Amino acid sequence: MEADYCMEKLQSIRAILFDLDNTLIETRGADKKAVEKIRQYLYDHGVPEECARELVGEYLKCFRANPQDPIPGRTDLDSWRKLLWAYALGPDWDYLLDKVYPLWKKTRFENLLFSDQVRSMLKSLRKRYKLALITNGPSEAQWEKMQKLNARDYFDIILVSGDYPFEKPDPAIYQVVFETLGVSADECIMVGDTLGTDIQGGVNAGVAANIWVPLQDCEHPKPQPDYKLDNVCNLPKLLAGNLANNFSSSVKKPEYKRRDSVRCIASS
């Protein structure tokens, strides 16, 4: 009975809210491929193997902590990331910087894209639903990805938390979507890979269902999603009732308070 009720809720939705990184694009995978390319390049140019591994590991740690300059307006993305590479390479190997940085950037963006299956899914879903993209992260770094992905071609609204005073799981960022698209929370579903931000945010905002697409599975996820998908491209099957994967969540979704003044960045 509960499974039937959950499916009933899916049939009445009008909007789908997606996370970006590691949900629609393989960000972690692209980062790993890019630094592996650099590790091999360093090794081929005289850097000892273990040292090369440590250097790229140090860069990846720094880059994930601060993908753009934390002080707004001080440096652009390229200058900041070159500084991170110079720091990681150190004085012994920084003469390789002019080759390392463009190779890293090229390799990363070659792998940071919507797959053909994801593009096809988004185009198909947008014929029936309003689509929103909500991503946490610094504004400049995330919008760089949007530009490379031509993301505005696939979504009715794109929100980057760096443009707002709140981020997932704060229900306020979901409220921007609801008001902009003219939908209520119970007419939306949230799709994401991270329990603590995507799924918890959907719970906090009171959406109809939360759909988890985990990078790493776990037996007892908290908060408990309503559904789990091994691949985000199985979402249309779930919405059509052809994929049974219900967690039968008993999580109570709290009410959210409306905010009178919000700033939104909607795609044209």
TrEMBL record:
Entry keyword Hydrolase: yes
- Which SUPFAM superfamilies is this protein grouped with? HAD-like
The record's annotation in Gene3D superfamilies points to: HAD superfamily/HAD-like, Haloacid dehalogenase hydrolase-like domain
Q: Does the keyword Magnesium apply?
A: yes
Organism name: Scolopendra viridis
Q: Which GO terms describe its molecular function?
A: N-acylneuraminate-9-phosphatase activity
Q: Which InterPro entries match?
A: HAD-like_hydrolase (IPR051400), HAD-like_sf (IPR036412), HAD-SF_hydro_IA (IPR006439), HAD-SF_hydro_IA_CTE7 (IPR011950), HAD_sf (IPR023214)
Q: Which cofactor does it need?
A: Mg(2+)
Keywords, A to Z, come to: Hydrolase, Magnesium
Please identify the protein, giving its name as recorded.
N-acylneuraminate-9-phosphatase
Biological process GO terms, please?
Answer: N-acetylneuraminate biosynthetic process
